[in-house]
Amino acid sequence: MPDPVKWCICIGYFYGRLTGVLNFEIDLKTGRTRVTNRANLYAALAQIVLTYFLVHQAMEVKFFRLFWWQANILHEVVYLAMAGFRLGCILISLVSRWLYRRHFIRLFHSFRCLVHEHPEITQCCRVGIVSKCFFSTALDALMLLMGLVMMWQHLTVFMVLQICSVSILTAVINVIITQYHVAIAIIRGRYTLLIRELGSIMAEAQTLVPSGVGVFVTRCCALADSLDELAAAQSNLQALTECLSKTYGLQILSMFMAYYLNFVGTAYLIFSVGKYTNITENWPPLFKALAAAYMVIFISDCYLCTYNPFRLLNSHSELSALLKQRSTLPPGLDPRLEIAFENFELNLARNPLTLSFFGAYTIDPASLFAVMNSLITNAILLIQYDVENY
User: Fold this and answer.
1) Rounded Cα–Cα distance for residues 130 and 8 (Å)
2) Are 13 and 34 in contact (CB under 8 A)?
3) Distance from C-alpha of 93 to C-alpha of 16, rounded to nearest angstrom
4) Nearest-angstrom CA–CA distance, 21 and 96
5) 294-353: pLDDT as tens digits
6) Which bin fits 343, alpha (ψ -120 to 50), beta or left (φ > 0)?
7) Contact 90, 172 (CB under 8 A)
């Protein structure tokens, strides 16, 4: 039976090549990367064509008015702000793909080696990866279908290009977010294995009966060696996480800002649907059903993208908490094993795991609460302005 994770990674790779996000080739059989003139030329052409259609077509107000009948000036301003900001963030992300291409290649090689050395990682993060790929694909398909259904009676070649340009914009965002999500899921899967290995070491250490004889010392030394290897693996994994944050920092920060503005704008547009009922008079029933499905999947996708990094941070905390239980071990263990436990615990205390992007935003509960509070406040201010002036 084929592995769904491998299928998702393959689909994500071809999706990235098709949209021009990936500007290097990957041999799916060996996993080796290579920079070729063919990859450079296609990625450059794809990005140029995408930029052209987005700038000259997707941001036209006439295209928006076909969706929002009798839209007022505020609706158009919000739409242009959302489209323009998303476009700017996409362009920044695509440019960073060229500036940090060597970093992306080295990063992919590191993850390939990690999965190759520990293939059971994919079993620990299968649900997260498959769910994210499903949500991303469903969002792209629904976006394209909604455009075609809404414009069915006005379809022309020019109109189809407009709809495709908007759909590709969503696809580029989903490709970037999905790549980062898969990387975080793999790191979390490796943390799950580290927790299991540490639990086995702790369980075996609990069975030791201090005696000072050869067998006892040998078992303590073996556990100390295993613990040192585990500490080295965790240190390398944390270094990989920091490298991931630096490499994807500019893109994730851009995507975060785009999502922030779009959340505020979408909240206002949803309010407008309830206030200005004549706006949706020309919406077909199928379009309304697709729009409802899109909102449900979009919210689920946002929840998954938020939950995954927090789950990684929880895994790191769980590893630290498990290591602190060494105080329950029987007294009189070999000094080398005691030192191995102490060094591992001190290293985790000195180097806590953080997911930070250019120092501008750090993923933690306090930051999430502040962002949610800011989103609600700005959405309410926009709605209040509409109520007072329209």
Assistant:
1) 7
2) no
3) 13
4) 10
5) 888 888 888 888 888 889 999 999 999 888 888 777 777 778 888 888 888 888 888 888
6) alpha
7) yes
